[in-house]
Design brief:
By secondary structure, the protein is an alpha/beta fold. Helices cover about 45% and strands about 15% of the residues. The protein has two domains: about 130 residues, Alpha-Beta Complex (Aspartate Aminotransferase, domain 1); about 230 residues, Type I PLP-dependent aspartate aminotransferase-like (Major domain) (Aspartate Aminotransferase, domain 2, 3-Layer(aba) Sandwich). The protein has a seven-stranded mixed β-sheet with strand order 3-9-8-7-6-4-5, sandwiched between helices. The structure holds pyridoxal-5'-phosphate (PLP).
Length: about 400
């Protein structure tokens, strides 16, 4: 008997429902143009907002760090110690975010599953936006706190639920920018509601840093809420162009997480190469807003072009550009045809987005040129005529 036959059944089900996601192979560095499954394609899939993933300065910093500190971290930081580079990164991140302190982790996912169970447990209640990222949902599951979902970006629904709670500690969690639609959480109103009910506020700024606020300092800066948000989670894997995550907030929060956050205690540190590249990225962003400006210029240009061509790009307020198609089959055919034309833009369907809300999500980057984006818009137009014929 094949004890793993349930896997065949599930894979067959996914395939028959069109939900099996074949993962493409990239044969080049990330950038505006990449090699996908052996052919050159215009890249609209990456979170490399500022084009830093292949930046010379980051690559040089990583190489230098390998020579000085070696390839691997050898253990968890709580036992073998932190590299000097980890401290430098954390100081630079805190300064960039306008927070007293920061703790870096292996990824944004790790940051969420580390911080949430440390902040809320038995007898506490977490209030989470219904469209929050999977890593927040998993962090809530790992916590022993009661978890309550409030309506998407709805501070009134949040306030009603907070008022009804009898929990000891209350923790409100929201994505800063919602990655599938590109809309921005009404963080000012969320903070007002939370303060009124004595709740802690945590924001996951994965798609906001490097994008929102002065010079890309993120959603807290964008809303002028410095000092009023208790916990900021971030990633170094998107606009910063490398890999890693972090938590920024009061010094005592960082001290506490070094004792309590399980991914910090039980999983090895990020490598010297990663950390050095992250430091270079934070320095670049701290020193100039040129890339952030280019990103927004590109986003406005592409979104104006797509709207002008009659495409529905939903409720985006950021460079994330969902091209709403509705039917999942149509979105998949559209994406496949785009790929034939040399544009890499992935279809996204249920369960990542609601049923009948399938879309192709385009990620605009500072690495794109006007010509790239003009070409992409033109190809969207051409493919639309073909797939709807
Ligand atoms: C991408 C993302 C993460 C995960 O970040 P990684 O560094 O890739 O693990 C967490 N939260 C949100 C909102 C994200 O979009």
């Amino acid at each position: 008997m094949d004890k793993l036959s349930f896997i065949d059944d599930e894979l067959a089900r996914l395939a028959s429902e069109g939900l099996l996601n074949p993962i493409r192979e990239i044969g080049s560095a990330q950038g505006a143009w990449i090699t996908v499954d052996g052919s050159r394609a215009l890249n609209l899939c990456s979170n490399n907002y500022l084009g830093l993933a292949d930046d010379r300065r980051l690559k040089d910093a990583a190489k230098k760090a390998i020579d000085e500190y070696g390839a691997g971290p050898a253990a968890v930081r709580s036992i073998a110690g932190s590299l000097t580079l980890h401290r430098e990164l954390e100081e630079k991140l805190a300064a960039f975010k306008g927070a007293p302190a920061a703790l870096s982790l292996q990824s944004g996912f790790m940051a969420n599953i580390g911080v949430i169970p440390a902040l809320a447990g038995e007898g506490d209640e977490i209030f989470s936006d219904e469209l929050n990222h999977a890593s927040i949902i998993d962090g809530c599951r790992l916590s022993k706190a009661k978890s309550t979902r409030y309506a998407h970006a709805d501070p009134d629904d949040l306030a009603t639920k907070l008022a009804a709670s009898t929990a000891n500690k209350k923790l409100v969690i929201t994505d800063g920018v919602f990655s599938m639609d590109g809309d921005i959480a009404p963080l000012d109103k969320i903070v007002d509601a939370a303060e009124k009910h004595g709740a802690m506020v945590m924001v996951d700024d994965a798609h906001g840093e490097g994008v929102l606020g002065r010079g890309g300092r993120g959603i807290v800066e964008h809303f002028g809420l410095t000092g009023r948000v208790d916990v900021e989670v971030g990633t170094l894997s998107k606009a910063f162009g490398v890999v890693g995550g972090y938590i920024a907030g009061p010094q005592k929060l960082v001290t506490f997480l070094k004792q309590k956050a399980r991914p910090f205690l039980f999983s090895s540190a990020t490598t010297a190469a990663d950390v050095a590249a992250c430091i270079a990225a934070v320095e670049i962003l701290g020193g100039s807003d040129e890339l952030v400006k280019k990103l927004w210029d590109n986003a406005r240009y592409f979104q104006d072009r797509m709207r002008g061509l009659g495409f529905d790009i939903g409720r985006t307020e950021t460079p994330i550009t969902p091209v709403m198609l509705g039917d999942a089959g149509l979105a998949r055919r559209f994406s496949a045809e785009l790929f034939q034309e040399g544009v890499f833009a992935q279809a996204i369907g249920f369960p990542t987005v609601p049923i009948r809300k399938a879309r192709i999500r385009c990620m605009v980057s500072a690495a794109h040129t006007r010509e790239d984006l003009e070409q992409a818009a033109g190809l969207f137009d051409r493919v639309r005529a073909r797939v709807s014929a």
